Amino acid sequence: MAALAELRALRSLCGVALFLTQLYVLSGRAGSLMTTKHSQPQSTFAKSLTSTSTNTPYFKAAESTEIPPYVTKCPSNGLCSRLPPDCMTCNTNYSCIYGKPATFDCKVKPHVHCVDENNHEQENFTINMTCQFCWQLATTDYVCTNSTNCMTVSCPRQRYNATCTVRDHVHCLGNRVFPKMLYCNWTGGYKWSTALALSITLGGFGADRFYLGQWREGLGKLFSFGGLGIWTLIDVLLIGVGYVGPADGSLYI
């Protein structure tokens, strides 16, 4: 009887061991399945990140191929030293001595091509110029606007505000466009010699005043016979010294 009881206990222990073994195997399979399911979204997300990072360069903005507007002012394959200032960038030295020759290191801007005296293409070169500001240049080195409402025959002599621009081939320090006060110096085509001759010969009839465009004074001299000669003599002196000039304010030629 004791042997039979031990046999039954051994069978129970084997059954329990078998149940625990099956339970362990089943739990291991379930864990592997869970791990696989969780790993798949991560790998998919990783792939999406990888594909996004790989395709990123395709969203970069294309480099601009537009030609800058200053290129139209720059002669192609010309001498670098003769390029207009808009075509180059220079290291300006403001500590140079005024009126003395100065040398500046320059570099051509993008899309600009120039050569040296040996016809070799250059990017870096030097410019020789006189150390002075643009507004200190000679009047022949810049162009200024003209005024049509300018009276040249006046005392004191009138001035007007003009905007001046330095010529392309001239190099200087500072702004190349600057304001300047200029004397009124335009002419309407009236000759001083003709006005003086008319004043001497036919001044009593107001011919000199009519010629200069001063119709009221001309009629006054005509009907007063030159102010009985006194007005005629005064006009000869005034026209001779240049005090009386054309009615439009222009200069004699």
Task: List strands and helices in order, with pairings.
Blueprint: H1 2-55, E1 78-79, E2 88-90, E3 101-108, E4 114-115, E5 121-122, E6 124-130, E7 142-144, E8 159-166, E9 177-183, H2 192-201, H3 207-211, H4 215-223, H5 225-228, H6 230-240
Parallel strand pairs: 1-4
Antiparallel strand pairs: 2-3, 3-6, 4-5, 7-8, 8-9
Helix pairs in contact: 2-6
Subcellular location: Membrane
Keywords: Glycoprotein, Membrane, Signal, Transmembrane, Transmembrane helix
Family: Belongs to the TM2 family.
Which descriptors apply to this entry?
253 residues, alpha+beta, 3-stranded antiparallel beta sheet, 37% helix
Describe what you observe in this structure:
With 253 residues, the protein is α+β, with helices and mostly antiparallel strands. Among the domains are: 71-131, no CATH class; 142-183, no CATH class; 192-241, no CATH class. 37% of the residues lie in helices and 17% in strands. It contains 6 helices and 9 strands. It has helices at residues 2-55, 192-201, 207-211, 215-223, 225-228, 230-240; strands at residues 78-79, 88-90, 101-108, 114-115, 121-122, 124-130, 142-144, 159-166, 177-183. A 3-stranded mixed sheet has the order 1-4-5, with no helix packed on it. It has a 3-stranded antiparallel sheet with strand order 2-3-6, with no helix packed on it. It has a 3-stranded antiparallel sheet with strand order 7-8-9, with no helix packed on it. Strand 4 (114-115) and strand 5 form a beta hairpin. Helix 2 (192-201) runs antiparallel to helix 6 (230-240). It starts with a helix and ends in a 13-residue tail after the last helix. The model is unreliable at 32-63 (pLDDT under 50).
